Amino acid sequence: MHGKIRVLFAVSEVYPLIKTGGLADVGHSLPHALDRVGADVRLVMPAYRAVLEQTASMKAIGWLTIQGAERQLEVRILEASAAEISVPLWLVDCASLFDRPGNPYLRADGGDWHDNAERFTVFSRVIAQLAADRLETGWLPDVVHCNDWQTGLVPAFLSQQRQRPKTVFTIHNLSYGGHYGPDEFHRLHLPWRWWDVDGMEFYGGFSMLKAGIVFADEVTTVSPTYAREICTADFGCGLQGVLQVNRHKLHGILNGIDEGVWNPETDSLLPAHYSAQRRQPGKSINKRALLQHFGLSCDEKSDHVPLFGMVGRLVQQKGVDLILDALPRLLVQTEACFVFVGSGQSEYEQRLRAFADQYPRRIGVYVGYDEKLAHLVEAGADMFLMPSRFEPCGLNQMYSLRYGTPPIVYRTGGLADTVFDADDVHVDRKVANGFVFDELSVDGLIDAVSRAIHLFGQTRRWQTLQRTGMHQSFGWEHSAMIYLSLYQGAALPQAHE
Ligand code: ADP
Ligand code: GLC
Fold first, then answer.
1. pLDDT digits over 79-113, tens only?
2. pLDDT (tens digit per residue) in 399-419
3. Residues 252 and 295 in one domain
């Protein structure tokens, strides 16, 4: 291969243009990291309304006629520039599918957009056309890197081409499958030979995620532990058999974080800065700001009262129910305070709000999405709660480690790969950086929280724990190099039992 390797990076959300979770963070930070390690990267995503509103100097680089659901669609490809994006950005502009307000996948009432199957089939068809340089731009990728079910059909479409780039498919979360029925399959004009157990057929419907797994040349997921877990019935979401068969091409590559955006020394969203060497007074100023933001008790004593924070999607995956069930006991047995920032299932939102109403000086809740507040929680809390039932990688625990806010996690997926338990030996040896529990239960969580509160009282050892996490490196350099090797055809370790 001559010159830089060319990578078309396809993803359905990119920070700061549009974000529902960690996928957007990776959709931003990974292509930029690949660029830094020497790849020639182009980023392609749908032109949602929010994206069009934030992009400048757009240039149409061509038009494609694409098969939709029982109709042909004219799609324009825009090359755009946007703040904080320094790799070439291509937008798939098809107003009838993407020019809508709000969430990329959901209506305002929380239900799926009715035409998601069509929207992401069209997106995938466009990517396959761009990968073949149908627009004759002169840029032909060596690799198409697809992410999650929204781009799962790309490797399938590309398999129809005789000369095609290599395809890499990354699973960020197996529990979102892009599963649709036979009617959609028919309406979208997908070839019936793919309707097969060895193709994308899945329990009487079809799965875009399965298509990605089956048709891609290489499949990755976002941590080594999750790569092993998804080959089992407990974590495989029904796809464990397919993953086992494809184990030879399945690799776990740990996500990195954007150490520019998530840096307590420079974070412009924080009232005060701090570093591993000089945590005070910065960290305490942030804690007070956080307490005040939520109207929680804030006086001389508050520095010594443990403050637990949580940021995230309020869904079953994140173990929100465990926290809710643990709260009554924790409120009686400890003097701790809690802040929650998130949105998701209305049952969880309501229960959290009810706690905040009942304990206005000890519990703060913000239901919604607020990037600035998320940064303040990472910086201002003493500990970060993340008892996820499963966690492909998880970025929040890495952000909290960087911010000197030791995470409390269940031993699963990327949490198991990044958080090391503060048992008696490992704090002083500067190996431990948080609290890990092994029993997925309210008792397991309460035990970890109690251990955290106990260590919080031992100032010197607590500071050692904080420093260990803050000194660790969570940047992308290492993992970006691994992706590069994968693109170039190097043999990587497979996901083992
Ligand atoms: P997931 O992708 O499963 O949601 P991650 O930990 O990988 O979990 O990433 C979550 C990302 O979304 C983080 O950047 C986190 O700060 C952000 N986030 C989640 N919920 C909110 C919210 N309500 N407000 C602000 N940021 C949020
Ligand atoms: C998904 C996963 C999360 C991961 C993120 C980015 O949303 O739930 O664990 O960190 O993708 O890969």
1. 999 999 999 999 999 999 999 998 999 998 889 99
2. 999 999 999 999 999 999 999
3. no
| 413 and 480 co-located in one domain | no
Ligand 2 atom showing the smallest separation from residue 226 Cα:
9
Residues in Cβ contact with 377 at an 8 Å cutoff, skipping those fewer than 6 apart: 290, 309, 310, 311, 339, 341, 384
Tell me, what's the pLDDT at 219?
98
330/431 same-domain check: yes
Domain of 328? Answer: 282-471
Residue of 425, 376, 417, 421 whose CA lies nearest to 398: 417
Q: What is the count of structural domains for the chain?
A: 2
Query: What is the per-residue pLDDT for 1?
Result: 55
Both tokens of 430, joined, read 């500067």
Percent of the chain with pLDDT over 70: 99
Report yes or no on 267 lying in a domain: no
Among the atoms of ligand 2, which is closest to the Cα of residue 317?
Answer: 8
Q: Are 89 and 35 in contact (CB under 8 A)?
A: no
Residue-wise DSSP of 178-217? -EE-HHHHHHTT--GGG-STTTTEETTEEEHHHHHHHH-S
Residue 97 alpha carbon to ligand 1 centre in Å: 25
In a domain, 494, yes or no: no
Residue 315 and residue 457 share a domain: yes
pLDDT (tens digit per residue) in 217-269? 999 999 999 999 999 999 999 999 999 999 999 999 999 999 999 999 999 99
The stretch 295-305 carries a mean pLDDT of 90
Q: Is residue 173 predicted with pLDDT exceeding 90?
A: yes
Query: Ligand 2: residues whose CB is within 6 Å?
Result: 21-23, 26, 172-173, 222, 255, 391-395, 414
Q: Are residue 457 and residue 482 in the same domain, yes or no?
A: no
Whether residue 372 sits in one domain with residue 231: no
Residue owning the nearest CA to atom 18 of ligand 1? 312
Q: What is residue 497's predicted lDDT score, i.e. its pLDDT?
A: 45
Give the list of residues 6+ apart from residue 363 with CB closer than 8 angstroms, or none. 296, 327, 337, 338, 339, 340, 352, 355, 356
Q: Say how many Å lie between the CA of residue 149 and the centre of ligand 2.
A: 13
Report d(CA 411, CA 182) in Å as an integer: 38
pLDDT at 298 > cutoff 90: no
User: 247 with 333, same domain?
Assistant: no
CATH number of 232's domain: 3.40.50.2000
- Nearest-atom index, ligand 1, CA of 397: 6
> Whose Cα sits closest to atom 1 in ligand 2?
172
